[in-house]
Amino acid sequence: MIRAENIQKNFGSLQVLKGVNLHIAPNEIVTITGASGAGKTTLLQILGTLDKPDAGTVTIDGVDTGSLSNDKLSQFRNNTIGFVFQFHQLLPEFTALENAMLPYLIKTGDFGKAKDEATRILEYLNLSERFDHKPNELSGGEKQRVAVARALINTPKVIFADEPSGSLDSHNKEELHKLLFKIRSDFSTTILIVTHDKELTRIADRVLDMADGRFV
Ligand SMILES: Nc1ncnc2c1ncn2[C@@H]1O[C@H](COP(=O)(O)OP(=O)(O)O)[C@@H](O)[C@H]1O
Ligand SMILES: [Mg+2]
Asked: How far, in Å, CA of 34 to CA of 44, rounded?
């Protein structure tokens, strides 16, 4: 589902990724661990097609992402990939429902259907009571579940999560981790998670440890 070959990335004279190779099978849940500065976020951004490598290829679901034009790539990303970040990155002026709707609205232009889909997915995530709340009216765990709804609404093949439970308390952390496994079994999603959490790493199918721009 995810195949990266010889990914290299430099920022100026700093070599951040030094030839990373990665193969992830459909339906796998894989965690990436490693010290701060190891290159985890840079790698996730490149795998998620939000940034481009200086060398190497990223193939997602059989598509060589480097061969797509910018328009096709945006479309591919919106249809195929969901993102969950450490700090939810919800739009503050929009409600939970509106935040969750956006990727579907962008995909189809159909406001009514986007609202229906967002309603369905927020209900699946136990957020039925929170449709009209803006991010600052939601708890940390709820905000992160809305971010998961936004990631899920276009039924992505792949979810990339960058320290998704990094700013949650232990109860919400555990709930979010359980949710990721439930999503994998309900939607057959492939999930790659950068995390420092030992428990999540213990229950993952596979763990990749990164140090100084490489897997070790
Ligand atoms: N846009 C950027 N410009 C310059 N340096 C960057 C940029 N993004 C990341 N870096 C540097 O690349 C290294 C790896 O960063 P990052 O991928 O965020 O690591 P991690 O997520 O493992 O903590 C760090 O030294 C960081 O300062
Ligand atoms: Mg990081």
From this structure: 13
Strand partners, 20: 7
Q: Is there an atom of ligand 1 within 6 Å of 40 CB?
A: yes
64 contacts: CB under 8 Å, gap ≥ 6: 57, 58
| Any ligand 1 atom below 6 A from CB of 16 | yes
Q: Whose CA is nearest to atom 10 of ligand 1?
A: 11
Of all protein residues, whose CA lies closest to atom 12 belonging to ligand 1?
16
Residues 156-180 have pLDDT tens digits of 999 999 999 999 999 999 999 999 9
- CB-CB neighbours of 63 under 10 Å: 15
Distance CA 46, CA 192 (A): 13
**Residue range 13-41: mean pLDDT, rounded:** 97
d(CA 44, ligand 2 centre) in Å: 9
